[in-house]
Amino acid sequence: MAADIPVIREVVQRVCTRTDVLDACRRRDLGAVITALCAQGITQGQLSVLTGIPQGRLSEYKTHKRTPAATATFETFADGLGMPAAARRALGLADGAPGPGAPDSLAGRPPGTGGASLADVRPLLASLTATSAIPVMSALGGMLRGYVEADQLMGSMCITGPVRLQMPVVERACEVTRGADRAEMLRFACQFTEFGGWLFQDAGDLACAAHWTARALDYALELGDQRVIAYTLMRKAMIATESGSPAHGLGIANLALEHKDALTPRLRAVILRQRSYSHAALGEVIASARDSDEAVAEAIAGMRQDEQDRAPYCTPTYAAMEAGASWLLLGHPKTAIPVLEQGRSEWADNSQVRDYALCVSRLAAGYAEAGELERARVAAAEALAVAQGLGSRRVAGRISLVYRRLARWRQDPAVASLRGSLKVLADSFTPEQDAG
User: Fold this and answer.
1) Least packed by Cβ within 10 Å: which of 20, 48, 107, 405?
2) What is the pTM (predicted TM-score) of this model?
3) CATH match for 225-349 among 1.25.40, 1.10.3470, 2.20.25, 2.60.40
4) What is the pLDDT of residues 391-414, one digit of tens each?
């Protein structure tokens, strides 16, 4: 696949300037565009990897069983493939997207950047050379370490703005770096763009999350590091499942485990954890439980591993907490509760505030679903207290679920007051609209 990416980009540029394809773009007939690309040897699977749109949905577009209408869907498709300006204009999109396939939203003024916009970094993009790219990477590497720590403590929304502006800088640095330094640059670019994808996912922007994670996979495939590829595929599986396509997410998770003997125990654990959640979203109880158990076992083995990897956060406590989330999704709160309670009692990592907030909010939802009001209230109050300082739509979504689960006791004055506070926090976040 890595060797095919430049070829695919070239085919997209050539096909999407043809008169018939431009006419299809003006009609917003995505099925005709997909058909034209597939006729040149591009597979729907490759289109799915590049765009982040599930392969099943692309097939429905191609056969006109489903007709996309949201502009965000066309943006995701065009950005992922790096469609030429003429095709973008025909689709009704802006043609000034920065860099190949970068989201148009980069051209705006994202929150948290002090009013900065892409125009402010364009001089740096133009001046980057193979010589200057390495020092820039080193500087951004220091920032990335700070971003990771800030994200764990405060959530994503305070840092998405700066990261959004720095993405095209990383892309440009990767474009100009050649020779002996390229592998190091690819490794960094993969880590930076994958982390950016996670930030947008936590902030509720799944289209941007899919875009940047697909870009990270491009870099990982060229790098050829099986561990990096597997971790990035896990991230794609997570986004696909959260986007409402768990079967697609399951397929990607299976691909991530294809060479599991080459992975560290922690990497196997974090991928199994995701596969368990995809199984749960599909209602597959036995498969989900099996993967959850294996994930915890691998996480325990990971405590003894000496090798560094991309999943140091995947401790046994974390893996168990995620197992509890799968049981909740399956509709088995009484099975989830003891697992989540154990995770809550064993939580010792004060740097993982968001994960603790997720654990407690899931526990509150589980108690409410199981009909245990008093315990639900205690856990909900704790979740609310922890979530107050977090800029995370992911946590806000869990808080919103707790609010709904407590509705059965809304006549109770104490519950009514608590629900009011939960609603205020949940409503302070405005979720992004679904792109498809």
Assistant:
1) 20
2) 0.73
3) 1.25.40
4) 898 899 999 999 999 999 999 999
